[in-house]
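Purpose: get a first structural picture of the assembly so the mutagenesis plan has something to point at.
Setup: two entries, given in the order below. No constraints added.
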Amino acid sequence: MAQLKASLRPATAPPPEPIPVTLTVNGVERTLHLAPWTTLLDALRLHLDLTGTKKGCDHGQCGACTVLVDGRRINSCLTLAAMQDGRKVTTIEGLTTGDALHPLQEAFIEHDAFQCGYCTPGQICSAAGLIAEGKASTDDEIRELMSGNLCRCGAYPNIVAAIRQAMAAVATKAEGAP
Amino acid sequence: MIAIPSIPGFLREPNGPIGKPVNRVDGRKKVTGDAHYAAEFTLPDLAHGCIVSSAIARGRITRIDTAAALALPGVIHIFTHENRPSLAWFDRKWKDDDAPKGSPFRPLYDAEIHHALQPVALVIAESFELARYAARLVHIEYEVAPHQTNLRANRANTFTPGKDKGGFQPPPKPRGNPEQAFLDSPVQVDVEFTQAAEYHNPMEMHATTVLHHDDGTLTVHDKTQGAQNCHTYVCNVFGLPKSAVRVMSPFVGGAFGSGLRPQHQLFMAMLAATQLKRSVRVELSRPQMFSFGHRPETIQRVALGADRDGTLRALIHEAVQESSRNENYVEIVVNWSGQQYTCDNVRLDYKLSRLDVHTPQDQRAPGAATGVPALEIAMDELACKLGMDPVELRLKNYAETDPNTGNPFSSKELRACFQHGAERFGWAKRTPAPRSMREGRELIGWGMAAGVWDAMQGQAAAKAVLGVDGKLVVSSATADIGTGTYTVMTQIAADVLGLPIEEVTFCLGDSSLPTAPIEGGSWTVSTVGSAVKAVCDRVRSQLVTLAGKLDNSPLKGVAEADVLFADGHLIVRNDRSRRLSITDVMRGSGTLSIEEEARALPYLLARARHTFATHSAVFVEVRVDEDLGTIRVARVVSAIAAGRIINPKTARSQIQGAVVWGIGMGLEEEAFTDHRLGRVMNHDYAEYHVPVNADVPEIDVLFVEEHDDMVNALGAKGVGEIGIVGVPAAIANAIHHATGVRVRDFPITLDKVLAGLR
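Result (structure tokens, whole complex):
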């Protein structure tokens, strides 16, 4: 038993040394010196002070940390910053253009698609990824493909309504509306 | 300073912002990532803390070996019960505004382990990752003692608590002869309900950042529903002067009750910051979110006796809930059963069983969310036995006055909820027999339930500062946990002073602001809103006085009651050409700013003579796959009577969100304890299921007209809790209607339905 206990004790390895990681975050190239065990989420929140990206579980279970990497939505807690070296990362802070909100941000406000606001940046980044994927055309498809983003306040019906509106706005823009 | 409560002469200006679906005033911050939560403040000297949780449920620590962790470069210190400083001795110093009777839990107090995941050490390091790594290297040995975590095994080992927690009265004395009346009733229902423990699990994990300033003062960014509650707690526990600490919580990433009491991450961050004299952040992990308060597991019995025409003759409701060894957590789940229906023979009974768990904690509609569904399922069973429509049965026994006290309700439009809810849902098209509605493989069920919650009011103060530029800042130390406090308080202030919403700023979440109680129980609009109205009324009076004194004033000699406030102007009510802008009044009278503070109290006399409550009627359609037993909520109509609705947009969101909570309670949420280990096994978001987007259909919310001039100066009751209360029962009743299977064990998972279908 004593032996078993001893074998269960984790081995002590020294903390890893920092390595350079270059990310283009919201259009700006940033080179950081990060211990390789640093997740993309913690790199954004703790090293770049971009706290708009939220930590809700740190296990890829809630979607609060969703960001866009080269335009695709990912859980930033499930990837190390070093694994995204050289890539383009877009966070909630990068969706606005000057003072102008992204159509999703406007729609979320209009439809009251959040309450506490903690899952909101992840929902919006995930919705931006969803629209880019072009896979959802019905409300049920939006519901299904947004189910990786938990909202404990239960704003789901309003989130669906907001995404539906923004999706239409983006489509109209793309078609070059009159 | 105290505003004398009076019957409200409210809404003198029908075009004001009250009652309008105003967008959240903090919306832009929340959608751009500019809203900052407790773990998002920093200083250059910030150190990171990681908590080590107990591996056992009960026993004592025999040895702690921190050598391997401390040997890592960058690990600063490890706090345990062996090296903690001397702290407050008396229990009262550890009590907070939501503490029940008993001895509050003291982190790192001694070697004793009282519950699983109890915090036993705090590792402080230069980086988050390093603190987390070092926490794994802290080696702890335990002497295990036997534990009891199984409520069902301990249901006979109970005691009857007293008035052990604010907001909850012990059950009223029995009336009539309920046992005999039950036996004599021609139609009887006597059933048992069980409900799993649920964890709040707000999206933001509990976190505290203590910023240590050069002058030794501390700014504490905490995840809390009461900045002043936490301020008092840390000053008491750490023996600090009030002026040395400021607690801030401008944004709270959900709480649902988890932030009503100071949680241990606050203690830990304060301990490290005061001892190390530097800034410290401690953030719990998602599994550690299962290490403190929860909605307690409950066993209930409801017995109903009725005449063949549906008249209730006997109502017996008994409940046993878990509490901890150290505190008497009560939520008296049975009391609403005596209030909802007219019945001459009633017995309500509430007991606690002590287990080796952390003290439970208020969770959305504490007590009512657990007790009312049991009653409402029993009522559905009674309706089935009587062959009576469930709405009809409820109307048959409708309580016009509160049967518990004999007092009238200040207002009660539950009838209108039944009527409008049923119409919107299309209830008349329901065929009563179970399994009588289907579409393909899916059995369709329509179920309903009523809900009730208390319309409480506490005391609060607010401050208003009106600048010469016509901008108004109102403040009170309340919280906005997503409920919309910022927005509705802004609307109330703007309404009273006739200002555009954009000219008004409301500040909250700061212990240095005027006194407000913890934000919970749906009482914030009532409590803080009344203070905001009171203080703005004072500013209004001052403006009328100043305007009357100006040379050639068009308002000279006009009484305050004859002045309208609209569009930033003071306007004579019956001659609207006579007007002055607020800025002209300020400039003309040489007033740089008007500052007022006011405190609002409940109407105590009216409160002593009436029952104050919100009501709801919930209608649900479920679809159950006959072969697989999968359950889908297809649509929900929730009709709410909650007095005046200050903001129909945010109020609707509150109800929708609470319906989602009801879906979680009805179908998904369940903490599984392995009683051999005394430990919750599904302690993360992957295994502890909460509703996701695909689980939630369109939710149709309607607010019925309800006029109430006794509840407070606003006529508004609050909507945070009422939305959840009837939902789990309506779902259970709909499942029975769909399948003929009656499940009395929440959550209703498909295995329980399948077992009945076979």
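Residues 102 and 327 of chain B are 4 Å apart (CA to CA).
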